[in-house]
Amino acid sequence: MEQELIAALRQRDPAAFADVFATYSDKIYRLAVSLLHDEQAADGVVQDTFLALIEHIHTFEERASLATWLYRVAYNHAQTRLRHQRPQVDLDEWADDNIALPEKMIDWSTLPELLLTGEEAKAQIMTAISTLSPSLRAVFILRDVEELSTEATAEALGIQPGAVKVRLHRARLALRETLAGYFEEIRGEEWTAKH
Question: Residues 82, 42: contact at Cβ < 8 Å?
Fold first, then answer.
């Protein structure tokens, strides 16, 4: 099926481009806005990604899936925009594999599902995700939000699968620590309401 789609893209079939855009534009936008914190810049990444698809589909070698290739292009465009925004040193890239344990933790499995899916909780989670470093945020979005495999995430970001696992673990630990206070407060309010 994907080979037929790629063949149609190479033949400049407008319906094939429309299909790919409908399938991936929102996902690429979410990745870009999570990295850039700027909706207009994220729109630019989406446009740049699909322009690259139009201009370079003939060079696509099919070693990875089309989705992985699009995420890789989008990630690279977002990184280029980040570099132009401000110089930054990503300490996450230089950190060793020793992972510091968070000071505060909460067992999310004991929270009622309604607490995790409510609008306020979603807003808190999105705010916490935005505090992650760009490299941790990209891995978290691709693995836990877009549900790409470890291998596809590694391919999209141009890193080794082991680095994906380490970064995902760090991202999850950081999020648990960041959100611990919020969920402890909610749990306390819930307990108070029952007694």
Answer: no
Side-chain-facing half-sphere of 193: CA atoms under 13 Å: 6
pLDDT in tens, 18-38: 999 999 999 999 999 989 989
Instruction: Determine the Cα–Cα distance for residues 129 and 137; give it in Å rounded to an integer.
Output: 7
Alpha-carbon distance of 38 to 112, in angstroms, equals 33
Residues 127 and 18: their CA atoms lie apart, in Å, by: 32
Looking at the structure, do residues 80 and 113 belong to the same domain, yes or no? no
DSSP helix, strand, coil percent of the chain (3-state; round to 5): 75, 0, 25
Nearest alpha-carbon partner for 74 in 105, 113, 42, 122: 42
Q: How far apart are alpha carbons 72 and 69 in whole angstroms?
A: 5
For residue 11 the two structure tokens come to: 């033949």
Query: pTM of the full predicted structure?
Result: 0.70
Domain encompassing residue 122? 103-194
